[in-house]
Amino acid sequence: MVWYVSALVYGVGGLVVTGIALLVAFQEKLVYVPVLPGLTKSYAFTPARLRLNYEDVWLTSSDGVRLHAWFIKLFPHCQGPTILFFQENAGNIAHRLEMMRIMLQQLQCNVFMLSYRGYGASDGFPSQHGITKDAQAALDHLCQRSDIDTSRIVVFGRSLGGAVGAVLTKNNPDKVAALILENTFTSILDMAGVLLPFLKWFIGGSCTNGPKLLNFLVRSPWSTIDVVGQGCKMKWCPRHICRCFMPRHLLVIISVSLWNFLLACIWILGWLVVITTGEQFSSSLDSPLLNKRKTDHQKLKIILGRSD
């Protein structure tokens, strides 16, 4: 009987260890999905199919990976804002063209669509470290262009792209005019427990209460909540909450951002009180009563001087 129990314990333990080892080894396959099931990695169509004026842009990231992007202009000399778009996880930028067409028409803007490494026509394999470099290469390219207003570059990230955009904005606060997040998450650490519930006992972020023993093994944590906590200019667009992403993730991110905004308001209000009080004190120095007292004091000094 003891032998059977020992064998069962060792067997279950072995399966758990093997399962976790496989998850760690192939975690990029779970986090990044460049190709949708049943489709190819290449673009199904280009912006020309939607009658959009576009330019094929080829970039090289700081670690030498060749990247592809589409720069779509509303019209040749459009000087409106330029949106740097970072897509969701699955598929490539061709699957987002219809939404970009609507954005061009409604916002009168330009759109720069980047294919992360390993996605679309870009080389390499996706990872957090690599995609962060890809985003930086895209922003640097836009800042060097002479045919757009570089002071009006707006970063727009959806889901995974929201995490990418938040990191890019934190690293380049002077180059990004604003950050728009749509349906993003607090962190991949939190999402691990949502997609694979048994992992919440080993991996977790701000929205989980587990022991978080294996957090150090996650190579792509994408902790958006930490980036937002450091303060970014954002516009909230919770238009759709994707079933994969828990609404409370968005609520946690919004609460952190609002708390930072509240602290900033309190700080500004404090300075306004100090300035107002100072002005009132200065004006009181010029009051008629005080001037009369100054005049009486000067007369008294003259009288005392004569008596001496």
| Helical content (DSSP H or I, runs of 4+) | 40-55%
> What is the H/E string?
HHEEEHEHEHEHHEHH
Q: For the largest beta sheet, what order do the strands appear in spatially?
A: 1-2-4-3-5-6-7
> What structural class do the secondary elements suggest?
alpha/beta
Tally of strands: 7
Q: What is the end-to-end distance?
A: 118 Å
Largest sheet: 7 strands, mixed
Low-confidence stretches: 238-246
Coarse shape:
elongated
Query: How much of the residues is beta strand, in percent?
Result: 5-15%
Rg computed from alpha carbons, rounded to a whole number of angstroms: 29 Å
Task: Please tally the helical runs, counting DSSP H or I stretches of 4 or more residues.
Answer: 9
Mean pLDDT: 76
Structure explained in plain terms:
This protein has 308 residues and is an alpha/beta fold. Helices cover 46% and strands 13% of the residues. It has helices at 2-25, 27-31, 97-107, 128-144, 160-171, 188-195, 224-229, 247-285, 288-307, and strands spanning 53-60, 66-73, 82-86, 110-114, 153-158, 178-182, 234-236. It has a seven-stranded mixed sheet with strand order 1-2-4-3-5-6-7, sandwiched between helices. Helix 4 crosses helix 5. The termini are far apart.
How are the SSEs ordered, and which strands pair?
Elements: H1 2-25, H2 27-31, E1 53-60, E2 66-73, E3 82-86, H3 97-107, E4 110-114, H4 128-144, E5 153-158, H5 160-171, E6 178-182, H6 188-195, H7 224-229, E7 234-236, H8 247-285, H9 288-307
Parallel strand pairs: 3-4, 3-5, 5-6, 6-7
Antiparallel strand pairs: 1-2, 2-4
